[in-house]
């Protein structure tokens, strides 16, 4: 039975990946930080078979201990300060966790693996935010990186450090350049979930308006459940590599609002939406659309859930949760 260690186990992707690996028969371990992490209970409820280890990406020795106590065949580094807007307000912390944290976990894996650096397979959660001010449409593995936020810059550092450890030490290290992926488990700070929850509340008469930022930005949105499958497939390849994971479709925030509101029978949605500079970013990523040909060809991976299905799934889940009093 293979063993996997996941950082970021309390996050959206950590939970889906743990479910996937447990279903495949893996022994799954997770790194959890903080003396009283409020999301520990969620992990224990949704994936009770996951064994948790205290640790933090900024603390190398805690990562070494987690590796020693779990002895993994595969390590998935999903932990990060992941909210782009927050990264301007906390640029140092973001760089420390999302950037230097990758160096810490790579170094911990290298030291733990000893004479055979390839024996522990490593996945780094890279991001389409690295493309930032896009230099090519659509974006693929070879597109020049031009990050637009402290978060994006930190992810570029982690991405190149992963490639460097692969090339320097012969590690089986892969970088998944994942475009936005969402689900009913998405954090409420991100735009899809902010919209799905607000639309559900508006439908149920619990709220009247939603305050938004830039409605013109375009994203390539997929379903998180599909995307964690791609992470696993990368680590089953004979060698580490880099892969873009995306749907190949792009939609604006306006289209997101239209689909979400229309789904609950509201067509004049503009009367419920107000824009506020508070939610505008110092530098915006205007357009993302990925070319996942390499993943399709080499990994046999394809997204299964399309944009409308994703948005309506999220709205329905929020309506059901609110009706149930959650
Ligand atoms: P989430 O924000 O839902 O989860 C982030 C995770 O990182 C949480 O488990 C959080 O734990 C953990 N974390 C934060 N700080 C630290 C730290 N100092 N040490 C260890 N763990 C820490 O993100 P997602 O699940 O959406 O994304 C997973 C990864 O994929 C992230 O690296 C993200 O940047 C990247 N990514 C995400 C995409 C998306 O669209 N979802 C697209 C491309 C990349 P805690 O509970 O302690 O806060
Ligand atoms: P993003 O996701 O920055 O792409 O990063 P987010 O959902 O936060 O923003 C997407 C776009 O929506 C615009 N927007 C708003 N965003 C938020 N959060 N709140 C608003 O009110 C709002 N109004 C408009 C934003 O300006 C932006 O253009 C996500 C994260 O998961 C990263 O960790 C990951 O790497 C990338 O996706 C790929």
TrEMBL record:
All residue ranges annotated as the NAD(P)-binding domain in the record? 5-314
Q: What's the cofactor?
A: NADP(+)
Single GO BP term: 'de novo' GDP-L-fucose biosynthetic process
The record, for CDD domains, names: GDP_MD_SDR_e
Q: Give UniProt keywords alphabetically.
A: Lyase, NADP
What is the reaction catalyzed? GDP-alpha-D-mannose = GDP-4-dehydro-alpha-D-rhamnose + H2O
- EC number(s) recorded for this UniProt protein: 4.2.1.47
Q: Which Pfam families match?
A: GDP_Man_Dehyd (PF16363)
Q: Can the keyword Lyase be found in this entry's annotation?
A: yes
Gene Ontology MF: a single term: GDP-mannose 4,6-dehydratase activity
Q: Keyword NADP, does the record have it?
A: yes
Q: What does this protein do?
A: Catalyzes the conversion of GDP-D-mannose to GDP-4-dehydro-6-deoxy-D-mannose.
The family annotation for this protein states:
Belongs to the NAD(P)-dependent epimerase/dehydratase family. GDP-mannose 4,6-dehydratase subfamily.
Q: Name it.
A: GDP-mannose 4,6-dehydratase
């Amino acid at each position: 039975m293979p063993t996997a260690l996941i950082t970021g186990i309390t996050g959206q992707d950590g939970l889906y990946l743990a479910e996937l690996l447990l279903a495949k028969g893996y022994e799954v371990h997770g790194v959890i930080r903080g003396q009283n992490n409020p999301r520990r209970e969620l992990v224990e409820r949704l994936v009770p078979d996951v064994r948790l280890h205290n640790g933090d990406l900024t603390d190398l020795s805690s990562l070494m201990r987690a590796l020693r106590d779990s002895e993994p065949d595969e390590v998935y580094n999903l932990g990060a300060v992941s909210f782009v807007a927050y990264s301007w307000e906390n640029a140092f912390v973001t760089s420390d966790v999302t950037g230097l944290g990758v160096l810490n976990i790579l170094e911990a894996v290298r030291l733990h693996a000893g004479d055979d650096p390839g024996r522990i397979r490593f996945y780094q959660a890279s991001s389409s935010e690295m493309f930032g001010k896009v230099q090519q449409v659509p974006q693929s593995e070879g597109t020049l990186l031009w990050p637009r936020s402290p978060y994006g810059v930190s992810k570029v550092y982690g991405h190149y450090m992963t490639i460097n450890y692969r090339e320097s030490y012969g590690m089986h290290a892969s970088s998944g350049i994942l475009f936005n992926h969402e689900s009913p488990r998405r954090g409420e700070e991100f735009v899809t979930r902010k919209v799905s929850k607000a639309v559900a509340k508006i439908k149920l008469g619990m709220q009247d308006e939603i305050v938004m930022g830039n409605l013109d930005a375009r994203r390539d949105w997929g379903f998180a459940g599909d995307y964690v499958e791609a992470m696993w497939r990368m680590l089953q390849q004979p060698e580490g590599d880099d892969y873009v994971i995306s749907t190949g479709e792009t939609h604006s925030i306006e289209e997101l609002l239209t689909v979400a509101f229309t789904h609950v029978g509201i067509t004049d949605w503009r009367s419920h939406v107000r824009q506020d500079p508070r939610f505008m970013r110092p530098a915006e990523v205007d357009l993302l659309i990925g070319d996942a040909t390499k993943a399709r060809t080499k990994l046999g991976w394809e997204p299964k859930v399309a944009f409308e299905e994703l948005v309506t799934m999220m709205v329905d889940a929020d309506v059901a949760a609110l009706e149930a009093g959650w």
